[in-house]
Amino acid sequence: MRLLVTGGAGFIGANFVHSTVRERPDVSVTVLDALTYAGSRESLAPVADDIRLVEGDLADEQLVERLVAESDAVAHFAAETHVDNALADPAPFLRSNVIGTFSVLEAVRRHGVRLHHVSTDEVYGDLPLGEDVRFTESTPYNPSSPYSATKASADLLVRAWVRSYGVRATISNCSNNYGPYQHIEKFIPRQITNILTGRRPKLYGAGANVRDWIHVEDHNSAVWRILDGGEIGRTYLIGADGERDNLSVLRMILQLMDRDPDDFDHVTDRAGHDLRYAIDSGALRDELGWAPKHTDFADGLGSTIAWYRDNEWWWAPLKERVEAGYAKRGQ
Ligand code: NAD
Ligand code: TDX
Fold it and tell me: Cβ(100) to ligand 1 under 6 A?
């Protein structure tokens, strides 16, 4: 199989490429990535000799068309992904997430190529705290932020291209990922690298917001399961029953790093901050037989901390600039 992976130099995409090279020697991987601030060649260094990396933008229709024409399937991960950045400047999110997905859809339509579109649970908006409800495939779309609105728009384009043009596509909406190679602007790696650089962790508001954590390897095994056996036109929700509030996650990081549990700062809350995400992944488990492997969160968090400790070369050059950006916003 010739597989085109968009966004393969980002967090989830790079982990996907690593595991594909490791576990699927029959797959030849081409990565298309614009190498924005969120993508890096270094994340693909361990597999550099096993893949082809093309630096380019999704909005470059001719390039996308050429690469899609040479592929049997596309795993579409590329996107602008950070909610705080979207609040500060939504324009790149419209370009990459909406126009970029449109460009991929037109190319797969012309060439009859199978597409898997990677999306997020944030398209469903948020859930109340403390109620026993979860997102399912039939939850109505209700995005809150410029980021989630552009991901929702992309999902709707995919659904329309399936219905109108018979494009062979599936969609997955996954909960919050953690693991190696995640950009240090995101919650978990930001706190780990704050501690490793002598800074205090930063918690938005009271830390009561709940996220449903899944290890990136489990997200990616689900994506492969859908590519292999998913029903065309279907949406699958991916989650590993990992609900925790932000304060508990932060305290766990502090404990695993031998710090005082109160050694952190409360900072300005995010505008429009979604309260709670929670995924019911029953359909994926029952119909495609998928199950997560990383079921012990403390264990997964411990190995993620170890990865950041051992791979300072990968993140240290970014740290000052990321924190200066947050400081400007009072976060
Ligand atoms: P990331 O920000 O770490 O990586 C995104 C990658 O896409 C980067 O390498 C970047 O250079 C590339 N990119 C961005 N715009 C591009 C463009 N116009 N053309 C080509 N490449 C471009 O993101 P991530 O966390 O790895 O997320 C990957 C996908 O998974 C996204 O679609 C995201 O919405 C989705 N997702 C993420 C999470 C999460 O917790 N991180 C959860 C659910 C879904
Ligand atoms: O320093 C911080 N302090 C803090 O309390 C940061 C960066 C975040 N937070 C909070 C905000 C959220 O409630 O932690 C939670 C997680 O924040 P992010 O890592 O920014 O993730 P989130 O906004 O939940 O979105 C993530 O999951 C879904 C990804 O960034 C998205 O790309 C994905 O779609």
Answer: yes
